[in-house]
Structure formats: structure tokens, C-alpha cells
# Entry
Amino acid sequence: MKYGPISQASRELEGIVREALDAAIADGSLPAPQQPLPAFLIEQPADPSHGDFATNAAMASARALRRPPRAIADAILAHLKLENSHFERAEAAGPGFLNFFVSDRWFADVLSRIFEEGDRYGRTDLGEGKKVMVEFVSANPTGPMHMGNARGGAIGDGLAAALDWAGYDCTREFLINDAGNQIEKFAKSLEARYLQHFDGEEAVPFPEDGYHGADITAHAEAYIAEHGDSLRGLSSEQRKKALVDYALPKNIQKMKDDLGRYRITFDNWFSETTLHQSGAVMRAVEELTRRGYTYEKDGAIWYKNAEVQTEALLRQGKTQQQIDQLELKDDVLVRANGFPTYFAADIAYHANKFVDRGYEKCINVWGADHHGHVARLKCALDAIGVGGDKLDIVLMQLVRLTRGGELVRMSKRTGNAITLSDLLDEVPIDAARFFFNMREPGTALDFDLDLAVEQSSQNPV
# Structure
């Protein structure tokens, strides 16, 4: 463990107090204990007038020494040797607390360490270089990042920084969900806006489940400005692929730029598509099948989620009646059309983290709307032989933006839902990140835009 001024002083103080106890017993000031002296606490009082450190050693030793705590405290005080230590004085208080005050030497040593270690000051080797990953933000690449992504970014990056400083080999990862239904909707939306430019909105209906954002229209118009009507004579699949290949990299680059502005740099941008291309998704399905956790029905491959979760809950001490109330259901892994589901890809992705890349602990920061996915994913990792206990999930609640006490839904500049970029146009980066970390992630957060920029004592930044 590297130098830590608080922990070091605590260990030093424990030794000083034990030596004083032994000396008091040795000269008869305190009787010989009838049983081993118990451990005692060293803590930092909330009230500075009670010292820089305090201990309950006298009260903890009262039973073994058969003396009142205050008498033991007085005996300890009489035998303290503070010379050449980091403490200048001590006093007894209340029923038997001992309060200690550090000397100027302690402050001088701290400052000396700060100058000596520079930017490395405060780091520890607690993590012993263990490989951990924090996966966070992982926003849908089909549109701009929203306030949930902004909060998740601040939480995840802060957590990764803390792990890094604690001596872990920590990786920050962004999962790019560039496969599946959302990409198909993105493609259909782009195609509709592209064709509407030439044929009109009445001639080209927009998909009911399409993305209506202005960014979709902007991408289509930008493509037309560069390539004209070159896609009109192609098949729908060719047209959609060309538009996605054009627009998706631009969206991803915009996310990288906005996150960079937010002072978040990811070590890895992991593409979901690579899991499908490498065969990792189907290998995960095959492994679950080999272990007896799948079955076929209606042409699809299903995962025995209800069975696996039930077994896990029974081991945790839940009754069958309690489990039945959860109404657990099985999950499709591969649809009848042969396409794997997102859940199958998610199992493969986490197997990749632990098995292929060797991470010992992975932490995901998710929105609270994913709470139902936590148990089934962790149990699926147990089922595939990875170990769900290696995965921790931080669930965060929604963010509400307010101004003047009123809920803010739209950006003044764009008239659209407020994005991360909009927020950073209004609020300093340090203030934004601090506000998002002011509350425990599981607590809903009201973000006061006025307070975040206010130059007053009311602003905690």
C-alpha cells in the first residue's frame, strides 16, 4: 500500500496507544487483563474541536481490565509517548474517549509527499493491477446523446478514475450498438428522408417506428449534396446500406467529439457488429445449448431464463411462492428467421470481456429502465460458465432539467430535446460533471440550470 497520510497516522496512533496500555499494565497503573485486550477504533471526529483523531480504546478495554473507561483513559494519557511522533497532544473526553491532535510535522510530511510525488500523489496499489472495465454511456449511435448519457458519462468516468487511482488496470469502454433493430430503423428513416427529397412526403410515407429527429433529415440532405440522386436506381437494401455507411460514422464521430469536450476519453469503442461477424454470438448460443440451457420452439432458439433464475433465487433463500410472483419468462436467443436477438449478443459481449479479454471485474453503468435485465444477464453468465458475480451493474435514475423552477424539455437554440452538446453550451464542464455526481446514481436528479451557472455561495461548485 502506498503512502496515505490518514491511514499512516491511524496505524501510528494505534501503536502509540497500545504501548501506553502495556506500560500502564506493566507498572501497575492498570491491572493485568483477564482476557486479551480487544481491538479498538481509530477515527476522525466530525467536530474538529474533538481532535484530528480519536479512539475508543479505553471503553473497548473496560471489560478486560475491570476498570471504568475514564480511569483507563487517564492511565493511557499518563503513559503516552508522543515525542518524535506525528501527534503533539492528547486529551480525555466524556466517558473515556481519547482525542489526539496532530503536530506541524504531520502537515509538513504531507506537503513534502505532495511535492515529491506530484501528479502521482494520492495513488494507491490497492487494486494490485487487476484488470477491470467500466462500460458506460454506450449511447444509441442513431442520434444525439441525451441527459441520461450525460449523467452516465460523469458517473462512469468518475468511477473509472477512482479505480485507476486505487491501483487497478482500468479500461473505459463504449459499446457501439451498431447492429440490430435500431440500425434497421435508422436505415429506413434515412431512406425515407432521402426519397422524400425527390418525390415529396406524400409519395413516400415515413416509417411509423422511424426516427423523426432533424438529424435524420440533415444526414439525407448532406448525402444528396455530395452524391445527388445516385441511390434512386438502387434496391432498397443497397440504398439503406449506403446511407447508413455514410451517416453512422458521422454520428459516432460526433459522439466522440462531444464526449471529448466533456473530458471523457474511452480506451475502447467496441462494435457490436464485430461480435456477429466473428461468430461470437452464435458460439455463445451453442455453448448454452451444450450446457442444456436452450430449447427450440416455433422455429426459434430459446434460453431457459425462468429455470436458471429460479435455481439462483432458491439458492438465495427465496421461496417458490415468492419466485412465482415474479412471473419469470424464457428469452429468445435466435429468432425463427435466423437472426440473433440483442440478448444473445449481450451474453456474447460479456463473455468476450471476461473470457477473451481477461477482465476480472466488469462494471456497467445503465439507466434504471434496464433494471429487469440485470438478473437475467448475470444468471446467463452463470449458465455459460463465466460467473455473473464478476459483473456489477450501477443503475442510475432519470435527470430532470429545470430553469427558474420550471421543467425544461427543449433546447432554446434548436427547439429539440436537449442534448449533451446543448448542455455544455450552457453549463461549464466542471459544474455539469459535479452536479451529476452530487447524488447517488439510484436517486432521481433535478439539474438546476440556473444554479449550475450562478456565481454565488448557493452553487456548490
User: Anything to note?
Assistant: The longest helix spans residues 236-261. The two ends are 32 Å apart (CA to CA). The chain is about 45% helix and 15% strand. The CA atoms of residues 29 and 439 lie 51 Å apart.
